[in-house]
Every structure is written in structure tokens, then in C-alpha cells.
Specification:
Layout lengths: L5 H16 L1 H8 L8 H14 L8 H6 L3 H6 L17 H8 L22 E4 L11 H10 L2 H10 L17 H11 L3 E4 L7 H4 L5 H11 L4 H17 L2
Parallel strand pairs: 1-2
């Protein structure tokens, strides 16, 4: 686990939260329409604690996890002998695997989607680039409309390193089995939501050493008080949203 990078811990929370609380609550929490002390948040933190409270579940234990950055969390799985059985993150881990290890995608390196909660639809949290139009004119608007089409996405997807949420994009255009499986996980998700912390004020959801990043790192260090952590998250969120 890349506990040294707080953004990875927000991804852990978001996936657990979406798959336990559902899409409506996810949207409300994203917009701070419900407080972080809501029982759905405490429940998600309790679920996280079932993993984080056991150092034997983490490569290097809790201390090791808190000292591991994202690239190292990936390479630990593919050292010889390996230091970890698996790593959780987005499909961009493929770049670290191919760039920094001898592992082969689809052979040494495979993946499975984040599991759904029992009895709940499977939710997928996705991140990505956003195109912003600063000057509204017919040519620019036409370009944006084209970029949203399956024809444009298939050009990108065939080059690798890009996954389109457009369900009209054929999985056959992706260059390898891993890319195709990743695209299927995205387009076949029961529920799809954009990364929560990327939609929140940076002071809360996107700054090292403060807000959600720091509070979840503290929770990883001692995950025995989910309710207290929820209170800390709400205090930080309230301050950030109030000033945004």
C-alpha cells in the first residue's frame, strides 16, 4: 500500500464508500450535502479498518505502508522474490510495471475490479482528463463534439494508455488483453462515478499533509476510531468548502 501518498488512500475510501453507500450518497458527500460524520462514512471507515487494522495484511506492516510511495507499492509486487501479493490502484499502474520491472502485462501482471459489497451493485470509481473550452466558437465546439465520439476515442485507444468510457467504442481496438479487460470493467460497471477527491476543494481533497490525505494517513496508522476520524474529516471539509 502506498500510504506515503495520501491520494492513494482517498481512492481506497472512495471505492469502499461507493460500493457500500451507493451512488446517491457518493454524490451527496462529494458536494458536502451530507456531513462526513454521516453513518455511511463511518461504515465505510469501519470496512477499511478491517483491512488496515491488521499489519499482516500490509507489505512491511503499517509502518512500511506509510513509508511506501506509489511507484514502490507497484514494484514491490514484481521484485524477485516479491514483497507483496497485489497492489490496489488504477490502470495507470501498467506504466510503472512496464517501465520499472521485468513483468509482462497479461502474464505476470493481471487485475480484477474492486469488489462490490455483498448484495450491492458493483461501483467503479474513475479518474481522467477533462477538456475545458475557454473560447466558445463553432470550430472549438465541433472539436469537443468530435472528441466525445467513438470514432475519436478508437484512435486514442488503439495507441494504448487510454481507456474510453464511451460504450460505443469497440473493445477490439485496444492493443492488449489487459487494456480490453480494463475497458470492459469501465463500460460494464453497474455504477460509475468520477474520483471524489478530484471534485472537492484542493485544501481538503488534494493537498499533501492536510485535509483528507493527512487524516486518512493518520487513520492508516491507527484505524481503531472510525467515528473520531469521521469527525476530523467533517471539520476539515467544512473549513475547505466554507472557504471555496
Amino acid at each position: 500500500m502506498a500510504g506515503a501518498d495520501g491520494w492513494t488512500l482517498t481512492d481506497w475510501f472512495e471505492n469502499v464508500y461507493l460500493n457500500t453507500a451507493g451512488a446517491d450518497a457518493y454524490d451527496q458527500l462529494t458536494n458536502h450535502e451530507i456531513p462526513w460524520t454521516d453513518e455511511t462514512v463511518v461504515n465505510a471507515l469501519q470496512e477499511l479498518a478491517t483491512i488496515w487494522v491488521n499489519p499482516e495484511m500490509l507489505a512491511g506492516g503499517t509502518t512500511g505502508a506509510l513509508q511506501t510511495d506509489f511507484p514502490t507499492s507497484v514494484t514491490k509486487v514484481f521484485t524477485d522474490p516479491p514483497e507483496a501479493a497485489m497492489v490496489y490502484e488504477g490502470d495507470f499502474v501498467a506504466g510503472v510495471i512496464t517501465g520499472e520491472t521485468d513483468a509482462t502485462l497479461g502474464d505476470d501482471a493481471r487485475f480484477f475490479p474492486f469488489p462490490a459489497a455483498e448484495g450491492e451493485p458493483r461501483g467503479v470509481v474513475a479518474g481522467g482528463d477533462v477538456v475545458v473550452l475557454f473560447d466558445a466558437n463553432p470550430a472549438s465546439e465541433a472539436l469537443l463534439q468530435y472528441l466525445a465520439t467513438a470514432d475519436a476515442a478508437e484512435i486514442w485507444a488503439a495507441e494504448g494508455g487510454f481507456t474510453s468510457p464511451n460504450r460505443q467504442v469497440s473493445e477490439d481496438v485496444y492493443p492488449d488483453d489487459i487494456s480490453r479487460a480494463g475497458a470492459a470493467a469501465l463500460t460494464e460497471a453497474d455504477v460509475l462515478r468520477f474520483d471524489m477527491s478530484d471534485q472537492q476543494p484542493a485544501a481538503f481533497g488534494g493537498t499533501p499533509g492536510q485535509g483528507e490525505w493527512k487524516i486518512l494517513q493518520d487513520f492508516l496508522a491507527d484505524p481503531t476510531d472510525p467515528a473520531g476520524t469521521a469527525q476530523q474529516l467533517e471539520a476539515a471539509a467544512a473549513a475547505a468548502y466554507g472557504g471555496s
